[in-house]
Amino acid sequence: MAPQTVLITGCSSGIGLATALVLAKDELSRFKVYATMRNLKSKSNLEKEAGDTLNKTLFIRELDVTKDPTIKSVVDGILGESGRIDVLINNAGYMSLDAIDQRSLEWCQAMMDTNYWGVVRTTNAVLPAMKKQMSGRIINVSSMAGVRAVPFYATYSAAKFAVEGFSESIAPVLRDGYNIRVSIVEPGPVKTELFNKVLGTPFEEQAKDFDPVLREVFLTNVKRMMTSAMLSVTQSADEIAKLHMDIILSEKPHLRYQTTENLTKAAAEKLRDPTTDFLLEMLEQAQDRYSAK
Ligand SMILES: *[C@@H]1O[C@H](CO)[C@@H](O)[C@H](O)[C@H]1NC(C)=O
Ligand SMILES: *[C@@H]1O[C@H](CO)[C@@H](O)[C@H](O)[C@H]1NC(C)=O
Ligand SMILES: *[C@@H]1O[C@H](CO)[C@@H](O)[C@H](O)[C@H]1NC(C)=O
Hints:
Blueprint: E1 4-8, H1 14-24, E2 31-37, H2 44-50, E3 58-62, H3 68-82, E4 87-90, H4 105-133, E5 136-141, H5 154-178, E6 180-186, E7 190-191, H6 193-200, H7 203-206, H8 212-231, E8 235-236, H9 237-249, E9 256-258, H10 261-272, H11 286-292
Parallel strand pairs: 1-2, 1-4, 2-3, 4-5, 5-6, 6-9, 7-8
Helix pairs in contact: 1-9, 3-4, 4-5
This protein binds 2-acetamido-2-deoxy-beta-D-glucopyranose (3 copies).
GO cellular component, one term: cytosol
InterPro entries: NAD(P)-bd_dom_sf (IPR036291), Sc_DH/Rdtase_CS (IPR020904), SDR_fam (IPR002347)
Family: Belongs to the short-chain dehydrogenases/reductases (SDR) family.
């Protein structure tokens, strides 16, 4: 059987890089992987780890999910070389702190442009080919933050909610109309450069532009949020990569996948309490101090 052609965004590091490698190194050679990234200058890690799969089952291309021409050029190139696109993995994105009104609108729109509109642009670019084939798989890498918003990550959570809503809406339509299966993957914290960058920057510095009240709430809570609960369940990018392969190979993929049992419980918790009042208890009782003032 001809290998499946897979396009992945955001492959310079983390989940994208791990997924590209797991698929390209598949012992049964079931995949031909186009691993893309915003800037080829950051290709060295992937290139090194690709070893002799480079230019055999793994091809590196430049694609910026905020720039339509780069998406079109990669998609046209793949269709020219391989004649089809079987799988799209929308992985590109970044995570950064923003508390409510502490960032400019331009800053928020730029994150939305990559983390949400980037997914829409890339999906729209591959859909004509998938519709013609009457087959295809689209996997959107979301986050537990797309199910339960994370305090102090307002725009990041909003972008993931948007991806979740759009995916949920379009999934039954694409399945029934075109045999295109769509899945959303919802990891928690994953050991990646992105995550290390967040942890590596002192919290005081991250919050230096916040107003005094928000800064205090943030500093009171962030260590607990980032270390105990979250870090104890940190997964490796490889685990997520293997899940991506399972989804591609599964005959009837689910719409949603949480990546650990605890995350499944966390997702279920939200459905069990439709008031979701429990989400208001996520922060330590900093507000007691304010009301006491
Ligand atoms: C792989 O292909 C690219 C062009 O697509 C080329 O620049 C590079 O030298 C090739 N690398 C190897 C190891 O063949
Ligand atoms: C992924 O998200 C995009 C935009 O939100 C949407 O167009 C697409 O259908 C989604 N795909 C899946 C598989 O959920
Ligand atoms: C799941 O959560 C429980 C408590 O909430 C914790 O004790 C356990 O270590 C977690 N399991 C994993 C695999 O992280």
